[in-house]
Protein 1
Amino acid sequence: MLLLNYRDSRPIYGQIKDGLRRLIVTGALAAGEKLPSVRSLATDLAINPNTIQRAYAELEREGFIYSVPGKGSFASDRRPEDPARREELIARLRELVAELRYLGVADRDILALMGEGSGQ
């Protein structure tokens, strides 16, 4: 499910948060699907439960997951409104497109790749 890279400069909770966000965005974790409990995931990854809790708290604050007291945390079925995140991703996409063009990838191939992500 999640892999941690201890050589990565990002903190562990950030890697967990990014990994879970990626699973939700790609549909690997479906809307309404239950996430592993904090303790269970902490045991699986051999890390402190507080690290998992921090990642879950940030994902909930961002709207990617929601929690139900006594039941657990679940992938959200709504898309979070986060203009700052949207702008950050658009800037990253522009950088990637510029680099792909520099490497000789044709615009039609870039567009085809982008269409793959939207299910077209």
Note: The mean pLDDT is 91.
Protein 2
Amino acid sequence: MKEIKNVLICGLGAIGSIYAVKISQNNKADLSVLVDKERLSRYKREPLHFNGKEYQFKYVTPDENFAADLIIIATKNNSLQQVLSEIKNFVGKNTIILSLLNGLKSEDIIAQKFGKDKILYSYYIGHTSTRTGRYVTHDDVYKTVFGESENTSYSEKVIAVKNFFEQNGIKYEIPVDMEYSRWWKFLVNVGYNQTSAVLNASYGDFQNYERVNNIAINLMKEAVEVAKAYGVKNTENLIPEVLDCIKTMLPQTRTSMLQDVDAKRQTEVDIFAGYVSELGKKYGIKTPYNDMFFEIIKALDEKNSKK
């Protein structure tokens, strides 16, 4: 089993910065951050400030060439195709790729490009980090959920990432049923990211106002129905487990989608409501809440794109 010594991070935003800082602080791996030429000059001029401390990293551009042991993709979904073209010089025979992108599609897209043997399923869950420009704050409450589709025993790739995370103080979980776990995270995004974006709601609003929370639940109910048709097991547990998680969130924090709306960035509604609606049509399941939220959030995107 190969030890992970050489790591490439794609995306230095609210999530990617958490991993970059953790790895650089422990100084047990050769860390590089992938940037284009524009970002290279900007990041050197305006370094990342994480929890009040300034960080500079080793930046590499797509025209460089080395085989990374681990590539962590932490961009937005609308940048995925660009990222795949930019990492081709860094994907070697034994490279492991973790995609922390939201939604359920990115691993399949990456596998089509580089092969399924390069992929582990993964996602980030925890308290939302807050990003304003090059300034990020986070309270270190999070975990990285990763693994093969099924993890009753661990593959060599899973063991390699597990050992690396432990060496670098990165919190993690390896669920037995990764497919269920991925859909659980998907429900969080479908219900709470989307409702927050439309209602300008913090986690405290979901915790304190029944009508606000019920909208999120109705969005998730439709996602559960398509999950059943998709073949996910134990779907009756999904919504109760999401509700338990939302109770633990810091009341004043805002979802990543609401932060995108606040900053006039384009949202990821296509991979949330858009995907629920797509699967609903495929399986003959009505998804009126997600259909409507798709139209509303797309209207927000259109309005914000003009500013």
Note: The first strand starts at residue 6 and ends at 10.
